[in-house]
């Protein structure tokens, strides 16, 4: 009887091995994965709120964008970023990116509402 073939790539039951750098990398990446999950859940919650705002605005015939509100938000977020030692320019760019998407949704909601009221 033939002996059991021996794999050329033996399994490693401990991927980080005994290398402390790899173990630390794994530990940090586990935290990063948790933080990314929290960010996704918080963004989803924010978009749930902004969708409601979009519907409310369409019903009340208010414009999708509110630049004066955005100015106040940017000022506040830059301050929060500064206090948290996060680059305020990055915080502002991130907020602008999110708000641009929200406004796009609001425009679509308003366009749908106009279309529905025609029919
Ligand atoms: C959500 C709103 O609509 C838009 C989107 C904003 C946001 O995503 O925070 C802020 C201002 C508006 O341009 C709002 O008016 O509050």
Automatic annotation (TrEMBL):
<dbReference type="GO" id="GO:0009697">
    <property type="term" value="P:salicylic acid biosynthetic process"/>
</dbReference>
<dbReference type="Pfam" id="PF01817">
    <property type="entry name" value="CM_2"/>
</dbReference>
<dbReference type="GO" id="GO:0046417">
    <property type="term" value="P:chorismate metabolic process"/>
</dbReference>
<dbReference type="InterPro" id="IPR036979">
    <property type="entry name" value="CM_dom_sf"/>
</dbReference>
<feature type="compositionally biased region" description="Polar residues">
    <location>
        <begin position="1"/>
        <end position="11"/>
    </location>
</feature>
<protein>
    <recommendedName>
        <fullName>chorismate mutase</fullName>
        <ecNumber>5.4.99.5</ecNumber>
    </recommendedName>
</protein>
<dbReference type="GO" id="GO:0004106">
    <property type="term" value="F:chorismate mutase activity"/>
</dbReference>
<dbReference type="InterPro" id="IPR010951">
    <property type="entry name" value="CM_bact"/>
</dbReference>
<feature type="region of interest" description="Disordered">
    <location>
        <begin position="1"/>
        <end position="20"/>
    </location>
</feature>
<feature type="domain" description="Chorismate mutase">
    <location>
        <begin position="19"/>
        <end position="110"/>
    </location>
</feature>
<keyword id="KW-0413">Isomerase</keyword>
<dbReference type="InterPro" id="IPR002701">
    <property type="entry name" value="CM_II_prokaryot"/>
</dbReference>
<dbReference type="InterPro" id="IPR051331">
    <property type="entry name" value="Chorismate_mutase-related"/>
</dbReference>
<dbReference type="InterPro" id="IPR036263">
    <property type="entry name" value="Chorismate_II_sf"/>
</dbReference>
